[in-house]
Amino acid sequence: MLKRALCFFVLCALGCHQNYEEGSHPQPIPPQPVQMPANHPAPTSEQSNKPVGEVVIGGTIRIEPSLVSRLPKQAVLYLIARPAPSGPPIAIKRMPLPTFPYAYTLTQADTGMMPGQEVDLKSLDALYLAVKIDQDGKVGPAQAGDMEGVFESNPVAPGTLNADIIIDKVH
Prior knowledge:
Radius of gyration: 23 Å
Strand content: 25-35%
Number of helices: 1
Helix content: 10-25%
Largest sheet: 5 strands, antiparallel
Number of strands: 8
CATH class of the domain at 53-170: Mainly Beta
Order of helices and strands: HEEEEEEEE
């Protein structure tokens, strides 16, 4: 009985290998090309910020020089877009703490954190942008030591590529 099971297993493995080698598996879906605006600053190789989809808003995130020494090493950066000054975000981008200044992009792919919440960012009149450096990386209210900044000219219209944000507040 054990011999039969072993033979069956070997034949199945060989059959799977043969199918794979012959190309009977589906072809992968190629990634969609992304076109960055000509005037958008390119990120450095250390800070690969490759947008997925068409860029809706872009800019540079900087930190107030007096706060650089207070940056937590294991923090997380959140880029948050809301349809109003407060309330739930409609787009959010989470990433490990980058080197500043940091060239960012916000795309349609950054919306819809939960199924059914997708919003076409380009159809909105304006967005309110904020950035948060969170020490523990967990979403929630700011805690002591977390840092924030907002786009000085909030609200921003979709299509804006110079929405620069300065992180200048410590909780």
